[in-house]
Amino acid sequence: MAVSKSTLSIVFIVLGGLAVLFGIVLVFVGPIIIDDQIVKNVEINPNNGLSYTMWKDIPVPFFMSVYFFHIVNPDEILKGEKPTVVQRGPYVYRENRWKDNITFHDNHTVSYKEFRQYFFEESMSVGDESDVVTIPNMLVLGASVMMENMPFPVRLLLSTTFKTFNEEPFLTKPVGELMWGYDSKLVDFLNKYLPGMLPTSGKFGLFAEFNNSNTGQFTVFTGQDDIGKVHMVDSWNGLKSVDYWRSEACNMINGTAGQMWPPFMTKESTMPFYSPDACRSMELVYQRPGVSRGVPVYRFVAPKTLFANGADYPPNEGFCPCRQSGLLNVSTCRHNSPVFISHPHFFEADPVLLDTVNGLSPNEDEHGLFIDIHPETGVPMNVSIRLQLNLLIKSVFGISETGKIAEVVMPMIWFEESGYIDGPVLNTFRTSLVVLPMVMEYMQYIFIALGLAGILGAVMLYVNDKKATKKTSVSLTQGVSTNYLYMHIKKPRLQCELQSKMCICMSFSNL
User: Which among 1, 176, 198, 485 is placed 20 to 30 Å from 240, CA to CA?
Assistant: First the structure.
């Protein structure tokens, strides 16, 4: 039995209306469903396989690239001339990071310690750990500045001690020893008779205390009661704040532990985190949108005020005593040694710093730090944290090892910690937390479009059907009219003609 076009149009209108209604419902309900799935996947919960594994074991490539500022004129520096350096590197180390001693608490927090190990990657490096470079001797030049205000006899005694243990103002040693430690009779002496004076009880090296170590005990919020607080630090080593700095605001432990952030970030959001290595909280700001391996991201960078001094940015007054903008004095958390942190090559620092050392050439692409983050989930897709370690050196009266060194903040090394999500982890993340929510978002518009198309098609079908019916009705009417005219006009005319003929015949017959 054939279905009429009118019936089909009614069916299409009903189906189209239902599709539009479903699409409109998705417009309001879809985002709620998507957000609910994101919340369930990003909270710190052992039942969430993907996000919990990423948080616990960080199963993504992570590397530390180290660059040394090799001093080419150490003798001239001792005579008061400007230092000249040549960058050597990178020397690349693969990082293994994992969390241990994980303990969940009733107040929706979890405590853990994150451990780290470093393994040299020769294939990614420009040389080998046996490469020899020359850098300032922190034991001599750093200690000299620390003892600058001590009585003159104490300074003479320190100089005599340096001579006794053959300590020179500059070190020329292999990269591996400078990184992970070298034997020093002076270090052994100090650890024996003045324990606790040095940060290490074994060999002395720039990263000796980093390898096979942890960053302290973090307690962070799981987000199970409030997703806006997920990954935010509740305490570090049991502390709500530190005491390294001169203001309450600067001592605050703000933000996350620096690996993940709460979801649903906007361009107005910031990325605060606490860094045990820098002894302070830092905050990154939005720069621009982008795409990282097919995933939409926001790029966050360090603001120019991050290492500004108190004169240029009053809120940083608590981090002083300050020198030029671009330097963070970390002596208070580094055994009072005159150590400063900055961006590599004094990027975005006071230009005066560049004038004191030859061989530096800062630029944003190579020396600016950034984090590319997926804003909906708060998961970093691409990370590059770049920092430089500097030592204040100068001539100290009574310590002959310092010669006539002009006062200068001397770059020693800079390092980049970088990582990115790739491989199976990226595919799973992109499918679960990017593609599926995107498909659900597009479905609402697809249903609305299909519904409107169905309704429009039904209306067109109905109109065409009406036109066809009207045309048929007109044809039938015209046929009936023709028959009527034939019967009522043509027939009398024939009869008249017949009658005329009969009259003529009758006339002839009378004749």
Answer: 198
